[in-house]
Design brief:
With 201 residues, this protein is mainly α. It contains six helices and no strands. 87% of the residues lie in helices and 0% in strands.
């Protein structure tokens, strides 16, 4: 009986992970499509951001690359972390990877538009490796956030406090610290890909 429960819980977690991965991909596709309908003024601002993106990398200012990449990823992970402390934060937590995917999709579409077929290679070498790692960490963070929100909601509905909530909160915080370390690895890979490939693009 216990084994069946454990197996069922694992299947639910795997299913939820797959769902969030699909949500992230949908966000990327939505961001790519939305780029086609942006007004010219907004597109010019995005073009300026893209130029800054390449200028920072070609200037070999790797500390700036590392911090920008890490801060961007941490912003979304931090949002998921905070939403975990809301009993009704589950829908907003699930929306976090969508928003992040929209931004990534729009950035990729801009690079494709400005660089033609070479833009595909640019994204494959400079954006996708670190994006995959940070997206994995973000999805895990959202799963933890939803789980924490469910616990809080259960407390509210049952009108009693769980004695182990303090311990759960400690584990929750430690898990996000570990995920932030993964985000740091993602930022480091972003720098590494820049060092290896920026002169070849």
């Amino acid at each position: 009986m216990q084994e069946n429960r454990t197996s069922g819980a694992a299947e639910n977690k795997n299913g939820f992970f797959i769902f969030l991965a699909a949500v992230s991909l949908a966000g990327v596709l939505l961001g790519t499509l939305s780029y086609c309908y942006m007004d010219s003024g907004f597109l010019e601002r995005i073009s300026s951001l893209e130029e800054n993106f390449f200028d920072a990398r070609r200037s070999a200012d790797y500390a700036v690359i590392l911090m920008r990449s890490l801060c961007s990823s941490t912003l979304f992970l931090g949002a998921a972390f905070i939403l975990g402390f809301s009993a009704v934060g589950q829908p907003l937590a699930v929306a976090v990877p969508i928003v992040r995917g929209i931004g990534l999709g729009a950035a990729m579409a801009q690079i494709y538009s400005a660089n033609g077929t070479s833009g595909i290679l640019t994204c494959a070498l400079l954006l996708i490796p670190s994006a995959l790692i940070s997206t994995f960490a973000l999805i895990r963070g959202v799963m933890l956030s939803v789980e924490m929100s469910d616990r809080l909601l259960s407390d509210v509905l049952s009108d009693r406090s769980q004695e182990d909530m303090l311990e759960n909160t400690k584990v929750y915080g430690a898990s996000f610290i570990a995920l932030e370390a993964v985000m740091a690895v993602s930022a480091a890979i972003d720098c590494l890909c820049t060092v290896m490939f920026i002169d070849r693009i």
